[in-house]
Amino acid sequence: MDSFVELYRASNALEAHALKGALEQQGVMVRLLGEALAGGTGELPMDSQEVGLLVQRRHLEQANKVLKEYHQSKAPWQCPSCGEQNDGHFETCWRCGCVPEH
Ligand SMILES: [Zn+2]
């Protein structure tokens, strides 16, 4: 059995689950750390409790790639044309319509 190493610490359970889904789509097995502390109620903790993501050591490199792509696609970006901050799910600047170069 491969040992698990910490890949990332998500700021909340929702982010952790979104990342877990993205990683598992790529065949990377994920364990969540910290979530059990809030368990028992069947509800996702909505506060800002950190949740660690653990992956097997042999998956670490691949997992980091998935993580990077995830953050690149979701991270807010600044418009190079007008300087406006845009949410990651916008592909064009909401203010001036500029398309950022990736
Ligand atoms: Zn703009």
UniProtKB/TrEMBL annotation:
<keyword id="KW-0863">Zinc-finger</keyword>
<keyword id="KW-0479">Metal-binding</keyword>
<dbReference type="GO" id="GO:0008270">
    <property type="term" value="F:zinc ion binding"/>
</dbReference>
<protein>
    <submittedName>
        <fullName>DUF2007 domain-containing protein</fullName>
    </submittedName>
</protein>
<dbReference type="InterPro" id="IPR001876">
    <property type="entry name" value="Znf_RanBP2"/>
</dbReference>
<keyword id="KW-0862">Zinc</keyword>
<dbReference type="InterPro" id="IPR018551">
    <property type="entry name" value="DUF2007"/>
</dbReference>
<dbReference type="Pfam" id="PF09413">
    <property type="entry name" value="DUF2007"/>
</dbReference>
<feature type="domain" description="RanBP2-type">
    <location>
        <begin position="77"/>
        <end position="96"/>
    </location>
</feature>
